[in-house]
Amino acid sequence: MAVAERTRWERFRNSAFWYSFTRDRVAMVCALIFALFVGAALLAPMLAPTNPYDLSTIDIMDSEIPPSWAEEGDERFLLGTDDQGRDLYSTILYGMRISLAIGLFAVMLQAFLGIVLGLTAGYFGGRIDSFLMRVADIQLSFSTMMVAIIVLAVFQASFGSELYSKLAMLMLILVIGIAEWPQYARTVRASVLAEKKKEYVEAARVMGFGSGRIMFRHILPNSLSPILVISTVQIANAIISEAALSFLGLGMPVSQPSLGSLISSGFEYIFSGSWWITVIPGIVLVVLVLVLNLLGDWLRDVLNPKLYKG
């Protein structure tokens, strides 16, 4: 097994993908920053000086303290405190954890729905294809944010703020995930239309393989390149959508802050001098989304032979 793993690793190191990555400084820096963000989010309980969810560690008298490097800063709080007295550094680590989790799981839901429906539409064609693509067209005609705002506002008004606070993360994943599946479906369908005419698919049919096996075991692996590119960009879009919804008061509750709810909670204090409550989480959010988009652009260039120049 060790020999097989070594051979697989050597094959990967000799691939065009690895060669391009090691020659592209922007991709390497973005991958490093993203890895640091993910690592910091996963290790938040160990890296954070305090637990922002533990009310016993929060003192309201410590609210709106500037960052430690500022003139009136406190050495206990590296990035200052928010309006509730929570250490902003700790809150950003936990908030980034929530934002990344929502982005990842929402994209997993988008990918699952889009891949299944896109494979079905492209492989079977005919009325099934027409019906699924018309549904996708109708859904694409509505803005994701508009649909999310309506659904979340109705849910919050119908079931109350207390229940909504408990289910906020699940609701955000479902709404963002379900609203964006057409992006995957249309891309996968286009790939399937090209792949299903190739000889290996005809050979699989002759051998008596069922439609499900042909779609998921043979066609899907050859359609993964555009899916990987879309997923990278969609994670960034999902994080932005969550931040926007939280800023509007329809996202994560104040007791479980994401990057978006942190920006929202400090926005009313930005002109009174407590700029760090909004600006610092905003910078973290911008950097996170930027590195994901740059990684998505690099993946698109590498995985598309027509664009890749070496």
Automatic annotation (TrEMBL):
<feature type="transmembrane region" description="Helical">
    <location>
        <begin position="227"/>
        <end position="254"/>
    </location>
</feature>
<comment type="similarity">
    <text>Belongs to the binding-protein-dependent transport system permease family.</text>
</comment>
<dbReference type="InterPro" id="IPR000515">
    <property type="entry name" value="MetI-like"/>
</dbReference>
<dbReference type="InterPro" id="IPR050366">
    <property type="entry name" value="BP-dependent_transpt_permease"/>
</dbReference>
<dbReference type="InterPro" id="IPR035906">
    <property type="entry name" value="MetI-like_sf"/>
</dbReference>
<feature type="transmembrane region" description="Helical">
    <location>
        <begin position="138"/>
        <end position="157"/>
    </location>
</feature>
<keyword id="KW-0813">Transport</keyword>
<feature type="domain" description="ABC transmembrane type-1">
    <location>
        <begin position="96"/>
        <end position="296"/>
    </location>
</feature>
<dbReference type="GO" id="GO:0055085">
    <property type="term" value="P:transmembrane transport"/>
</dbReference>
<dbReference type="Pfam" id="PF00528">
    <property type="entry name" value="BPD_transp_1"/>
</dbReference>
<protein>
    <submittedName>
        <fullName>ABC transporter permease</fullName>
    </submittedName>
</protein>
<dbReference type="Pfam" id="PF12911">
    <property type="entry name" value="OppC_N"/>
</dbReference>
<keyword id="KW-0472">Membrane</keyword>
<keyword id="KW-1133">Transmembrane helix</keyword>
<feature type="transmembrane region" description="Helical">
    <location>
        <begin position="274"/>
        <end position="296"/>
    </location>
</feature>
<dbReference type="InterPro" id="IPR025966">
    <property type="entry name" value="OppC_N"/>
</dbReference>
<dbReference type="GO" id="GO:0005886">
    <property type="term" value="C:plasma membrane"/>
</dbReference>
<keyword id="KW-0812">Transmembrane</keyword>
<feature type="transmembrane region" description="Helical">
    <location>
        <begin position="98"/>
        <end position="126"/>
    </location>
</feature>
<keyword id="KW-1003">Cell membrane</keyword>
<feature type="transmembrane region" description="Helical">
    <location>
        <begin position="26"/>
        <end position="48"/>
    </location>
</feature>
<feature type="transmembrane region" description="Helical">
    <location>
        <begin position="163"/>
        <end position="181"/>
    </location>
</feature>
